Every structure is written in structure tokens, then in C-alpha cells.
From TrEMBL, chain A:
It comes from the Eukaryota. InterPro entries: Porin_dom_sf, Porin_Euk/Tom40, Tom40. Central component of the receptor complex responsible for the recognition and translocation of cytosolically synthesized mitochondrial preproteins. Together with TOM22 functions as the transit peptide receptor at the surface of the mitochondrion outer membrane and facilitates the movement of preproteins into the translocation pore. Directly involved in the pore formation. It holds the Pfam family Porin_3. GO terms for biological process: monoatomic ion transport; protein import into mitochondrial matrix. Keywords: Acetylation, Ion transport, Membrane, Mitochondrion, Mitochondrion outer membrane, Porin, Protein transport, Receptor, Transmembrane, Transmembrane beta strand, Transport. It is a multi-pass membrane protein. It is found in: Mitochondrion outer membrane. CDD domains: Porin3_Tom40. The keyword Calcium does not apply. Belongs to the Tom40 family. This is Mitochondrial import receptor subunit TOM40-1.
TrEMBL record, chain B:
GO terms for cellular component: mitochondrial outer membrane translocase complex. Residues 1-26 are annotated as: Disordered. Keywords: Membrane, Mitochondrion, Mitochondrion outer membrane, Protein transport, Receptor, Transmembrane, Transmembrane helix, Transport. It comes from Apostasia shenzhenica. GO terms for biological process: protein import into mitochondrial matrix. The lineage of its organism: Eukaryota, Viridiplantae, Streptophyta, Embryophyta, Tracheophyta. It is a single-pass membrane protein. Belongs to the Tom7 family. It comes from the Eukaryota. The keyword Transmembrane helix applies. The gene is TOM7-1. This is Mitochondrial import receptor subunit TOM7-1. It is found in: Mitochondrion outer membrane. Its main location: mitochondrion. Pfam families: Tom7.
């Protein structure tokens, strides 16, 4: 007769039972087929996407022209103030204007992105799938001034329920990280890095718990940084995110809370910070491929007000 | 005694010259690798964007040269 087998112990050899037709459909965990976790550097991606849009001050105009499916050129103009890091608490702003030319080649197996500015600075990114599971990424900023260029090679290996990455950078930087799915919703990872020239090394651990409706992450590192984030997807169009960061070396504590409205014609992101910074970023779709951008950042603590507007044409 | 001192002196100078050879070999490697990295950086700096454009213009469907240069 159609007798249903007695429910297996959840920690036993995993067997996925077919969903029962009762109201409560309980899916048994298949411990042998856990999903692949997100890459270690993207462990906080939902929180970063919602809380850290690219705020700017001044005018920004980006034009992307596609020549065919895979190849496109981009022209980008920026006129405004850029902040120069200063020792004192005052912000020093330098008015700058630059034009940036870029070329992108996007293939499923090979991605090449290059951007060059009028002062000769080149920003290059290469991503190449060497095999199905092994990917090589190169990221470089090359300048005309000597000793200011930077480059980083990453080798990523993706397993069935884990990912691992090895990094080599200039200034004798070596890093590695590893992340593993330990439950359908939970993944744990760790990273280690070594800076040759300064003889510094660090170790860090991270955890991510995510469901369809929420994502919570935590990170702790021997560099003295502790970071937590929580993102709740309230509906298809609205997400709320919050973030907490503590730096033991500089005794810096920051916490922020923000929202992300993804509507049909626009995307609005806003956030408020414990440092007294209120910021907002609006991308409005005027027409197919034409976006209007407004950016605002008000720092009540330092009395620094930044407003920017711009337009993006092309995909 | 004089011969012992002489042999000691020779032994030391012998080791010294071998050590100098090893040091200069590793120094050579370092100097050449630094030279190679410098040349590679210049090549990457000037050649990366032309490389992307070359690969892109040869991908299917082939775009026209006019499309590359015109602003529309």
C-alpha cells in the first residue's frame, strides 16, 4: 500500500523526501547537496548595494555605446570636487574635471574592462574562466608616476559547496580565503593575508545566514575590525538594511540604517549614519537607456554638504 | 704557522669568492625580473585598451570602423 516511509533523522544520510501534500510541506535537508556559497568578498553584498551607492559631488555624464553584443565603448565626463584625505578634521576639496574613455569586452568566458583618463591613469580588469571551476581575475591601476601603480591577481576555485580564492598583489601582498556552506542557509568562511613589505599579517572569520527574506552577516578580523550587517527584504520593491562596524585600532564605531526602493521607473536609496551623515541616491529612468541621477550627502558633524547630478546614457 | 695562516687566508678568500658569485647570481635574477616587470607594466599601460579594441572589433558580428569613431 502507499505507506509513507517514517521520517528520517535529519542528521542521517541525506535523502530528500518528496513534498507531502499536507499543509506543512517540510523539506528534509540534503546534507550532501548544499548550495554553493556566495564568494567571500561578496558576503555583505546586499548590505553594500543598499547602503553604499556611489555618491558623488558635481556633474557626472556617462555614455556607453554598444558596437555589438559583447563589445562596447564608454565615454565619461566628471566635473566637480573630489575630497583629498587630510590629517586634520577639515575636509579639503579639490575641484577636478576629467574625461575617461573606456572599452569593455564581455564574453561568457572572458571579460576585459579598461578605463583610461586624460592624465594617463589606466584602470584595468580582466576576468577569465580557465576551466569550469577555476577563474582568474586581474585588477590593476597603472599610473604614469612611478611606484604608484597597483595590481592584484586572484585565482578562484569553485567547488560544489565551497569556494576558495588565492590572491597575489604588488608590494608582496598574499592572501587566501575559503568559504563553505554548512547548512542550506548558513555559510562560514575565513581569510588570511600577509603583507610582505610591512611584515603584517591578518586572519579573519565571516559568517552569513540568508533566507529569501533576510540576510545577516558577521565578520571579525585580527586587524581589529568587527562588522555586522542585516538586510530584510520587506517586499519585492523595498528592502531595509542596517550595518554596524567597530574598529578596535582607531576606536571607531559606526552604525547605519538605510532603505532601498526598487520601483519600476526609479531606484531610491537612502541612509542615515551614527556619524550624523544623511545621504540619498536616486536613479530615475527617463527613457529606455537614459537615466537621470541625483546624489546628496549631508554631513552634519563636519558641516560638509555634497550634491551631485548626472545622466547615464546607454545600458 | 705561516703556512696555516696562508691556507686559512686562502680558504676564506675561496669561500668569499663563491659567496660573492651566489650573491651576484641572485642579484642578477632580481635585476632582470625588476626590468621585466617594468617593461611589462609599460606594455600593459599602453597596450591594454588597444588590445580590448582589437579583440572587440574582431568578435562576431564584426562592427564597422565608422561605428568605432562616430559619436552616435
Amino acid at each position: 500500500m502507499g505507506s509513507i516511509a517514517p521520517p528520517q533523522h535529519p542528521l542521517g544520510p541525506g535523502v530528500v523526501l518528496p513534498p507531502k501534500t499536507e499543509e506543512k510541506v517540510e523539506k528534509k535537508v540534503d546534507w550532501r547537496n548544499l548550495p554553493c556559497p556566495v564568494p567571500f568578498e561578496e558576503i555583505q553584498r546586499e548590505a553594500l548595494m543598499s547602503l553604499k551607492p556611489e555618491l558623488f559631488e558635481g556633474l557626472r555624464f556617462d555614455f556607453t555605446k554598444g558596437l555589438n553584443q559583447k563589445f562596447s565603448l564608454s565615454h565619461s565626463v566628471f566635473m566637480g570636487s573630489m575630497e583629498v584625505p587630510s590629517q586634520s578634521s577639515d575636509t579639503i576639496k579639490v575641484p577636478t574635471a576629467h574625461y575617461e574613455f573606456g572599452a569593455n569586452f564581455l564574453d561568457p568566458k572572458l571579460m576585459l574592462v579598461g578605463r583610461v583618463m586624460t592624465d594617463g591613469r589606466l584602470n584595468a580588469r580582466v576576468k577569465c574562466d580557465l576551466t569550469d571551476n577555476l577563474t582568474m581575475k586581474v585588477n590593476a591601476q597603472l599610473t604614469n608616476e612611478p611606484h604608484y601603480s597597483q595590481g592584484m591577481f586572484n585565482f578562484d576555485y569553485k567547488g560544489s559547496d565551497f569556494r576558495t580564492q588565492f590572491q597575489i598583489g604588488n608590494n608582496a601582498f598574499y592572501g587566501a580565503n575559503y568559504i563553505q556552506s554548512v547548512a542550506p542557509n548558513l555559510s562560514l568562511g575565513s581569510e588570511v593575508f600577509w603583507l610582505g613589505h610591512q611584515r603584517k599579517s591578518g586572519l579573519g572569520f565571516a559568517a552569513r545566514y540568508g533566507t529569501d527574506k533576510m540576510v545577516a552577516t558577521g565578520q571579525v578580523a585580527t586587524t581589529g575590525v568587527l562588522a555586522f550587517s542585516y538586510v530584510q527584504k520587506v517586499s519585492e520593491k523595498v528592502s531595509l538594511a542596517s550595518d554596524f562596524m567597530y574598529n578596535h585600532m582607531t576606536r571607531d564605531v559606526t552604525s547605519s540604517f538605510g532603505y532601498d526602493y526598487m520601483l519600476r521607473q526609479c531606484r531610491l536609496r537612502g541612509k542615515i549614519d551614527s556619524n550624523g551623515v544623511v545621504s540619498s541616491f536616486l536613479e530615475e529612468r527617463l527613457n529606455m537607456g537614459v537615466n537621470f541621477i541625483l546624489s546628496a550627502e549631508i554631513d552634519h558633524g563636519k558641516k560638509d554638504y555634497k550634491f551631485g547630478f548626472g545622466m547615464t546614457v546607454g545600458e | 704557522m705561516a703556512s696555516k695562516a696562508a691556507s686559512k687566508g686562502k680558504g676564506k678568500s675561496g669561500k668569499g669568492s663563491k659567496g660573492a658569485e651566489n650573491r651576484s647570481a641572485s642579484k642578477c635574477v632580481k635585476v632582470w625580473s625588476t626590468w621585466a616587470m617594468k617593461k611589462a607594466k609599460v606594455v600593459a599601460h599602453y597596450g591594454f585598451i588597444p588590445l580590448i579594441i582589437l579583440i572587440g572589433m574582431n568578435s562576431e558580428p564584426k562592427p564597422q570602423l565608422a561605428q568605432l569613431l562616430s559619436p552616435v
